[in-house]
């Protein structure tokens, strides 16, 4: 009966999706159409001038007041010589002024480079350099690292304007907001959907960050998906927005989507698990947007009588793992969860409209899953030199067809863009976007996320899914969070499993070993453990793995305590044991 239920719901979802989307694809979303997020913003200003638009740190702004500030920022940008298609950088925490400055950029047709606030040093210098910016707006708390990154470079002469955030603006710096209050005159730009609106950067987990090109079409389409398929916003709603606005999940599926309804956004500078539910109650928010680790952080908070006593009716986001999905929904009494799958640079997305636990949505005709080598994602070709599709129950590389209505904008770096395109996949001349993700195909085209290509590793002639192992380890008593990856050993073929974990006071190795033995095959076991109080994550709470892989299990490179699985016990690794493992003296 369950299978039939999901099949029928899937058919309904398809009809709803195409009924809403096809007319827009055929008649509205055209490259030369004059349609941007400003259309929705201006409509709200006209229709609901005195309604609350934004709430930040207790201060409310109406749509009318927001529009006045947008025009001041537009005048300020124009006064600094920023013209249509010119780029300026925004290195700022979440705030009302973040979105108002971005709207001001749209007003004059410039391009905003939305810089990840966790980037520093060479990475920060790199993203500013490749964006060819003409000026920088920066939150006061990030000014020090910005100056350090740019010192002794040809970028050090760029004009820098500072916005007060958690820190006051230091003496000698130019106060952006104070200066902007002097301006309001500007030349409005005439936009086309194909015009680039912003650069959003990749996390840089596999190298320096890349600048993804985001045109007005992607912003409008993303807002459509967030509004109609994820949240179903109403004017009376309040969205609690704690994800970083420099990233597409919070920006497009949250704030941009809410613009279509005229509802208020409660903006939080940075996520705080301890403040979360108090904020929800204080500001009477009824919807929030998540990434999976945010949900895990909330689950790790001590249980409270407030857990079920909240006003949340629906949440949407990505990366909510199956191991906590239902427990999270039950504990916090959340009626609807709409999990999505997508990426800033992708040409499509999936949405689990009906909240089937553990799924990312359903496969449509514009995407498919192909057979590949699980360790590196290389497509497996048939005798004719083309790719082959996987069968139900199998896992493969998820790809999305590129065509006139699903365009791949790519990155500023053309070479990086070309690496994401698969050519001649099923026939000569076709093109597909390579998501770099391994996806499992279920009944009636339902999909679940399996792993990132490169995160799956091979050990004892078996493929090991880091996500699958992490989901099991996270269920062990005392484990708060874990990050699983494979590490190279000089004396062994393949890579052995390693887990970096944060644990509570009641964690014991005896209990953990029993859990591992009962729930994991021998080739899946984490032979190495790293106990850490500081889990390395990106600004959107995704686990960082590349640095951890490079450090491996070498005690001379790592301050955290390291352990090796030896004779059904975890023993601490010192220099001597490390040498014996690498030489092959210690056997697995």
In short:
With 588 residues, the protein is an alpha/beta fold. It contains 17 helices and 28 strands.
Folded structure, characterized:
The protein is α/β, with parallel strands linked by helices and 588 residues long. The protein has 4 domains: 29 residues; 311 residues, ANL, N-terminal domain (Rossmann fold), CATH 3.40.50; 88 residues, Luciferase, domain 3; 127 residues, 2-Layer Sandwich (GMP Synthetase, Chain A, domain 3). Helix 8 crosses helix 9.
Task: Provide keyphrases for this structure.
alpha/beta, Luciferase, domain 3, Rossmann fold, 588 residues, eight-stranded mixed sheet, seven-stranded mixed sheet
What is the tally of helical segments? 17
* Tally of strands: 28
- Tally of distinct domains: 4
> Tell me, what is the CATH class of the largest domain?
Alpha Beta
- Strand % is 15-25%
- The CATH homologous superfamily of the largest domain is named ANL, N-terminal domain
* CATH architecture grouping of the largest domain: 3-Layer(aba) Sandwich
Low-confidence stretches: none
Spatial strand order of the main sheet? 2-1-11-10-12-13-14-15
Taking the alpha carbons of the first and last residues, their distance comes to 46 Å
**Could you say which overall geometry the principal axes of the C-alpha atoms support?**
globular
Instruction: Describe the main β-sheet briefly.
Output: 8 strands, mixed
CATH topology grouping of the largest domain: Rossmann fold
Radius of gyration, CA atoms, in whole angstroms? 25 Å
Mean pLDDT metric: 92
| Structural category | alpha/beta
Helix content: 25-40%
């Amino acid at each position: 009966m369950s299978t039939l239920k999901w099949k029928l719901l899937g058919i309904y979802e398809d009809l709803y999706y195409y009924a809403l989307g096809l007319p827009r694809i055929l008649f509205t979303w055209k490259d030369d159409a004059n349609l941007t997020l400003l259309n929705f913003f201006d409509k709200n200003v006209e229709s609901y001038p005195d309604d609350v638009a934004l709430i930040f740190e207790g201060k409310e702004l109406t749509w009318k007041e927001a529009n006045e500030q947008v025009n001041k920022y537009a005048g300020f940008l124009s006064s600094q010589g920023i013209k249509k298609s010119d780029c300026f950088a925004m290195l700022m925490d979440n705030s009302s002024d973040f979105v108002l400055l971005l709207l001001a950029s749209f007003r004059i047709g410039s391009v905003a480079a939305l810089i990840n606030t966790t980037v520093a040093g060479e990475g920060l210098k790199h993203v500013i350099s490749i964006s060819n910016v003409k000026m920088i707006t920066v939150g006061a708390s990030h000014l020090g690292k910005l100056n350090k990154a740019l010192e002794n470079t040809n970028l050090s002469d760029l004009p820098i304007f500072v916005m007060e955030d958690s820190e006051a603006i230091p003496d000698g710096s130019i106060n952006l907001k104070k200066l902007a209050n002097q301006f309001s005159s500007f030349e409005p730009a005439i936009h086309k959907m194909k015009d680039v609106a912003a650069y959003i950067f990749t996390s840089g987990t596999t190298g320096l960050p890349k600048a993804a090109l985001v045109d007005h079409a992607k912003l409008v389409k993303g807002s459509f998906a967030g509004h109609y398929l994820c949240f179903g916003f109403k004017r009376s709603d309040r969205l609690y927005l704690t994800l970083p606005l420099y990233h597409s999940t919070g920006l497009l599926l949250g704030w941009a989507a809410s613009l279509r309804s005229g509802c208020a956004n409660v903006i939080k500078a940075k996520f705080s698990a301890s403040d979360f539910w108090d904020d929800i109650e204080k500001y009477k928010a009824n919807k929030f947007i998540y990434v999976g680790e945010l949900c895990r952080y909330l689950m790790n908070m001590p249980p409270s009588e407030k857990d079920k006593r909240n006003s949340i009716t629906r949440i949407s986001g990505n990366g909510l793992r199956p191991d906590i999905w239902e427990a999270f929904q039950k504990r916090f009494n959340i009626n609807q969860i709409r999990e999505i799958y997508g990426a800033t640079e992708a040409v499509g997305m999936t949405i689990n409209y009906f909240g089937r636990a553990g799924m990312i949505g359903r496969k449509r005709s514009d995407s498919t899953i192909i057979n590949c080598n699980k360790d590196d994602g290389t497509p497996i070709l048939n005798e004719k030199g083309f790719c082959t599709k996987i069968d139900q129950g199998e896992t493969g590389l998820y790809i999305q067809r590129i065509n006139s209505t699903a365009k791949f904008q790519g990155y500023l770096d053309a070479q990086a863009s070309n690496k994401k395109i698969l050519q001649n996949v099923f026939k000569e001349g076709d093109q597909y976007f390579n998501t770099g993700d391994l996806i499992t195909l279920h009944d009636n085209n339902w999909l679940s996320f399996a792993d990132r290509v490169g995160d799956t590793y091979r050990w004892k002639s078996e493929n090991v899914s880091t996500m699958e192992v992490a989901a099991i380890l996270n269920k062990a008593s005392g484990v708060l969070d874990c990050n699983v990856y494979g590490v190279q050993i000089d004396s062994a073929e393949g890579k052995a499993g390693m887990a970096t974990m944060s644990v509570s006071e009641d964690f014991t190795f005896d209990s953990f070993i029993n859990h591992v033995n009962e729930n994991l095959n021998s080739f899946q076991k984490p032979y190495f453990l790293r106990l850490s109080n500081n889990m390395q994550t990106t600004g959107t709470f995704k686990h960082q793995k590349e640095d951890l892989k490079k450090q491996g299990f070498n005690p001379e490179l790592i301050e955290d305590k390291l352990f090796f699985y030896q004779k059904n016990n975890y023993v601490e690794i010192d220099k001597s044991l490390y040498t014996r493992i690498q030489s092959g003296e210690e056997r697995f």
